[in-house]
């Protein structure tokens, strides 16, 4: 899949004034490449039709360390989502767990309560939602001290259509196609009702309008991964003229870090590691040096880099 890197991709900060990534001046939109293969042990994303997914598949996906994106079958196409009416039901379908544990604690609740709407929130009809490693860790109980009460509807990343707005919402309206990560502090008091449901309530400041060149599954795959990539490069002090080595360049975070480094930060040289079968992907992302870690050890290479981003961990 291919799309375009747009100023509508949320940055690390969630404030309205800094919701967007910086863009290089006087430059046309940059083509953004999404890895087309299924997620490996990194955090690559794959779009799938929810109609073809069974409860077992969803449960297993929630337990893996990679990312998974599911598009709702309520839309005829992942790229479109028609909202016929603004009438919102009182209950919805949602994935829920009421105890911590492995993937077996997840259950499909067909009568979950639609979350109440605060004045600064919008209610989004979810078209596509994504799973991240943090979801599995949260479900396993690793953040119990700061977690929301049980039962929990998991999920942070999503893309969908606004169907209702709170009284203090200023910039979004019904019918807007949006995407984002719904909890401002994922580990400190995350929302009890997350994105793996038919509806989710989100503060306006946490959302951006979905670029027209992205379908809903692509948009849902971006928020946490691109914020991780951007946050890492920013904290490491990457800037124009500096060089960077990305470890794990074929995954979700790594592939986005390569493109951000190249086209947004203006890195002078971008290198990345991947397995043999992913070397061509690295080249398509625009790396200057593609390193096959099955054949060469990056520690033994003579090249030196200003920044190293470890997307493997």
UniProtKB/TrEMBL annotation:
Residues 101-309 form the Enoyl reductase (ER) domain. The keyword Repeat does not apply. Coiled coil: none annotated. Keywords: NAD, Oxidoreductase. The keyword Cytoplasm does not apply. GO terms for molecular function: oxidoreductase activity, acting on the CH-CH group of donors, NAD or NADP as acceptor; zinc ion binding. This is Enoyl reductase (ER) domain-containing protein. It comes from Sorghum bicolor (Sorghum).
């Amino acid at each position: 899949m291919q799309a375009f890197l747009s100023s509508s991709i949320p940055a690390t900060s969630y404030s309205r004034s800094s919701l967007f990534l910086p863009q290089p001046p006087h430059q046309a939109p940059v083509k953004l490449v999404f890895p087309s293969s299924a997620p490996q042990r990194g955090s690559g994303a794959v779009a799938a039709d929810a109609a073809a997914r069974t409860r077992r598949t969803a449960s297993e996906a929630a337990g893996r360390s990679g990312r998974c994106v599911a598009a709702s079958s309520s839309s005829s196409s992942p790229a479109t989502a028609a909202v016929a009416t603004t009438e919102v039901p009182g209950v919805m379908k949602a994935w829920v767990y009421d105890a911590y544990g492995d993937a077996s604690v997840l259950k499909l609740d067909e009568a979950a309560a639609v979350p109440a709407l605060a004045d600064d929130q919008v209610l989004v009809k979810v078209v596509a939602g994504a799973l991240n490693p943090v979801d599995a860790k949260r479900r396993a109980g690793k953040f119990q001290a700061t977690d929301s009460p049980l039962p929990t509807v998991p999920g942070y990343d999503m893309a969908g259509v606004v169907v209702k707005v709170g009284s203090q919402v200023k910039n979004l309206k019904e019918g807007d196609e949006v995407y984002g990560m719904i909890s401002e502090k994922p580990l400190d008091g995350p929302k009890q009702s997350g994105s793996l449901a038919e509806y989710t309530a989100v503060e306006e400041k946490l959302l951006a309008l979905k670029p027209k060149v992205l379908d809903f599954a692509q948009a849902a795959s971006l928020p946490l991964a691109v914020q991780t990539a951007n946050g890492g490069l920013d904290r490491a002090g990457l800037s124009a003229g500096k060089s960077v080595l990305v470890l794990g360049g074929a995954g979700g975070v790594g592939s986005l870090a390569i493109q951000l480094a190249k086209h947004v930060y203006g890195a002078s040289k971008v290198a990345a590691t991947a397995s043999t079968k992913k070397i061509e992907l690295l080249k398509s992302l625009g790396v200057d040096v593609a390193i096959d870690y099955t054949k060469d050890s990056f520690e033994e290479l003579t090249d030196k880099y200003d920044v190293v981003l470890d997307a493997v961990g």
